[in-house]
Design brief:
With about 500 residues, this protein is an all-alpha fold. About 70% of the residues lie in helices and about 0% in strands. The protein has 21 helices and no strands.
């Protein structure tokens, strides 16, 4: 009995160490050192290494009955989605598409399945490692630790771009020591992610939800009361520095929606405080006037900062006669073309799709005519010397094209199951309500983020949904009961 007790404690501590390491390394999404992966594989999360060690530990704990598997509705639906994807991908072999630039159907299918398995690993690990309030506090602290490390690297990049203290070539060598990507030449902040848009997506879907929830619920998981508000302000500042149009619009839009859904009471309080102060005297009046001037100054400064990049100015400077011309003018014509080409595959096989990873075989043959002469990106792709394999760049279009209605509907049902998990804990108090607000924010952000990306291996679309699944487990083992069981084991030993 003594041996079992000691091993139980050791495995529990080991699982926490590995889970903390995974959360700490989340910002690195394109880790250079992965075996058996070509240079065109850009999604390479460093956190997959500690998770690969964590899963065997969790399995041992599950076999011993120390850590039950989270058989929640979301987990079961994700498993059903994976089975459907396996089925339609097997059927895709029958279509036998012509190899494209050295890529075969079997090769693309295997690569796509690896990305799905990576996503499932992140979801299952998050659900398994978050069973109670103490687990959630541990997760939140290490998420903040990872974000802190990322902010340090972001600060280093900012110093390199905007001062003469560090040479860009030297910092580029530092970044290439762990990343597949050098510093962005246009001086856009990318952090430890592959590109600025990835960093903006990380912050919006993985870090901002917790910080926004802390502000809205006034709940703190650290002793430093000013930490979450400061990190929240830095998050928006970093998103501005990425110049990511999609990231900024999603962050602002989801913040506004979450505030309207959850923060109406706080909004009424702020409204009452603001207008009530004008009747209290000169000092209160000046405080509110200063606040208005500060807000206007921040908005104006942000607009001027973003206007420095032609890439961003095109949003309001482009004149067009129709939507297609506008998309081309703002450099979004390529994405629109890829999505249109992939939808042709869905139209050919609406029920089953063409198999996971195979939409690229159908894109070039179905590109709209206007893209052939007006979109430089498409001309580069169609160059006979190019070895690039196209992808839809939209998760929903990709699932429709590759898994048909069978896989797409199950994926949407899974997403709404995650939303149900968020709403269920939102009705609770204290830390669970905090989780519910973060979950709702993340769900909205992920739903919009998937419009601009199509990788199933991206950790940030699985992390918070997995945490919600774990905390929504029908029969979680309360913290007090876990400690009591450990104490009984030690007494028996």
């Amino acid at each position: 009995m003594k041996t079992f007790s000691l091993s139980f404690v050791t495995l529990d501590k080991l699982s926490r160490i590995l889970w903390g390491a995974a959360l700490l390394t989340l910002p690195v999404t394109s880790f250079r050192y992965f075996p058996f992966l070509g240079e065109d594989t850009l999604v390479r999360p460093l956190s997959l290494y500690p998770l690969a060690l964590l899963l065997p530990v969790l399995l041992i704990q599950w076999i011993r009955g120390a850590r039950p598997f989270p058989w929640t509705g979301s987990t079961i639906l994700l498993g059903a989605f994976a089975l459907v994807v396996l089925t339609v991908t097997s059927l895709g072999v029958l279509f036998d598409p012509i190899p494209l630039r050295g890529q075969t159907y079997s090769g693309r299918a295997v690569r796509a399945w690896v990305t799905l398995l990576i996503g499932i690993v992140f979801f299952i690990s998050a659900a398994w490692m978050n069973r109670d309030e103490e687990d959630l506090k541990f997760t939140f602290k290490w998420i903040l630790a990872g974000f802190g490390v990322d902010l340090l690297w972001i600060g280093l990049q900012a110093v390199t771009f905007y001062t003469n203290l560090l040479q860009k070539e030297m910092v580029t060598h530092w970044q290439l020591a762990f990343s597949m990507r050098e510093l962005v030449r246009t001086n856009r902040i990318s952090g430890m992610a592959y590109e600025p848009a990835w960093l903006a997506g990380q912050i919006t879907t993985m870090y901002l939800p917790w910080l926004f929830a802390a502000l809205l619920t006034n709940f703190r998981l650290t002793r430093v009361k000013w930490l979450e508000p400061v990190l929240l302000a830095l998050s928006f500042l970093v998103i501005l520095a990425t110049y990511s149009r999609g990231g900024l619009l999603v962050a602002l839009g989801v913040s506004a929606l979450t505030f309207l859904f959850i923060g109406r009471g706080a909004l009424r309080s702020v409204w009452t405080w603001f207008f009530g102060g004008f009747r209290r005297g000169t000092t209160a009046w000046l405080v509110r006037l200063g606040l208005v001037v500060t807000v206007i100054g921040v908005l104006a400064g942000s607009f001027v900062f973003l206007s420095q990049k032609n890439y961003f100015r095109r949003l309001w400077e482009t004149s067009a006669d129709d939507l297609t011309e506008y998309l081309v003018g703002i450099n979004a014509g390529g994405r629109s073309a890829y999505a249109t080409g992939a939808m042709a595959a869905f139209e050919e096989h609406p029920i089953t799709g063409v198999g996971l990873g195979a939409s690229g075989f159908h894109i070039y043959a179905n590109l709209p005519d206007w893209t052939l002469t007006t979109v430089p990106e498409i001309a580069k792709q169609l160059n006979p010397e190019s070895r690039l394999y196209p992808n839809p760049k939209n998760m929903y279009v990709r699932l429709l094209a590759e898994t048909g209605l069978a896989g797409f509907v199950l994926f949407i049902v899974f997403q709404f199951s995650v939303l149900a998990d968020a709403l269920s804990v939102l009705r609770q108090k204290d830390i669970l309500r905090f989780l519910g607000v973060a979950g709702l924010f993340a769900w909205l952000a992920i739903a919009l983020y998937n419009v601009t990306q199509d990788s199933l291996a991206t950790p940030n679309i699985w992390l918070i949904p997995g945490i919600l699944a774990g905390l929504s487990f029908p029969h979680p083992l309360p913290l007090s009961q876990r400690e009591k069981d450990r104490g009984e084991d030690e007494e028996c030993s």
